[in-house]
Amino acid sequence: MNGGTVAARRAWRRLEPLHGMIYFVPEAADRYAKLGLTGMSGYFASRGAAFGRASADLVIATFYNFCPDLVRRSLPAAWDVVTPEQMLEARVEAAAEALRRAGVHELPHLAEALDLARHAAMAACDHPQGRPLFAAHAALPWPDDPLQQLWHAQTLLREFRGDGHVAILLTEGLTGLEALVLHAAGGEVPVAFLKMSRAWPEEEWTAAEARLQDRGLMEAGALTTAGQALRRHLEDRTDALAMAAYGALGEDGCERLAELARPFGRRVVDAGLLRLGR
Question: Dihedral through CA 44, CA 49, CA 53, CA 58, nearest 10?
Fold first, then answer.
């Protein structure tokens, strides 16, 4: 990794809590429930609404690592209850409500952080090819509120990076479940949470572990040296593909965004907006 990709990864990681909290905060669940959707139906419909009336198959393909049966229990039935436009509005309003509850809007340098994040996100918009989930979100109008704009910018950067990550997983011959099992073995996220939220049957999870063991990537539920090397390779290649966005800032711009993003991400974490299993 060169200095530019290191700085870009730092900028993404530090600002990512600003986007990621939308999947955990009660503000989102409450707004979706008022529209008639609860549990994972709210998640799949809110994130998939950028596609319009997204089919289960489209969400299975682009979200990549969820058990197909779980998705099909939510879609397309959700569109008999709500419209995509209602879900998109509820999502961005919930984001702003949660971030304001945490006091993110009171932090200094919001305008400068927004300027840098938006610049990177707009650069990404010049490269939508092969990134369907990003492209769908990039076609949405920008909110008027600066706090919502910052959330939207990070949403675009997250989906841009995520689509690139899926491309690398496919190149390396990893299914969504196998990628999930590798992620779990890395110890960054509790295995129980990943199993619960992605809803793969235990026998399929165990079979994926066996396949990864046969490839020499796991042993006794942990990553082998080869598995650790593959995880690093996946992240490094994902970072490289994300430079189509972050490269527009230059290394100094990425370093500045990373510096500015630290208190924003920290405020989200300290306020408990990323609490798992809420």
Answer: -60
Residue 132: which of 55, 50, 238, 75 has the closest Cα?
Answer: 50
Tell me the HSE value of 44 on the side-chain side, using a 13 A CA sphere.
Answer: 34
DSSP code of residue 104: G
- The amino acid sitting at 122 is M
Give phi and psi for 174, each to the nearest 5: -105, 125
Task: Check: pTM over 0.85? Answer yes or no.
Answer: yes
For residues 78 and 45, is the Cβ–Cβ distance under 8 A? yes
Among the listed residues 69, 73, 68, the one whose alpha carbon sits nearest the alpha carbon of residue 39: 73
Residue written as token pair 């992620």:
183
First to last CA, the chain: 36
Cα gap 50→130, rounded to integer Å: 16
pLDDT tens-digit series, residues 27-56 = 999 999 999 999 999 999 999 999 999 999
Task: Please give the Cα distance from 265 to 106 (Å, whole number).
Answer: 13
SS3 state of residue 74: coil
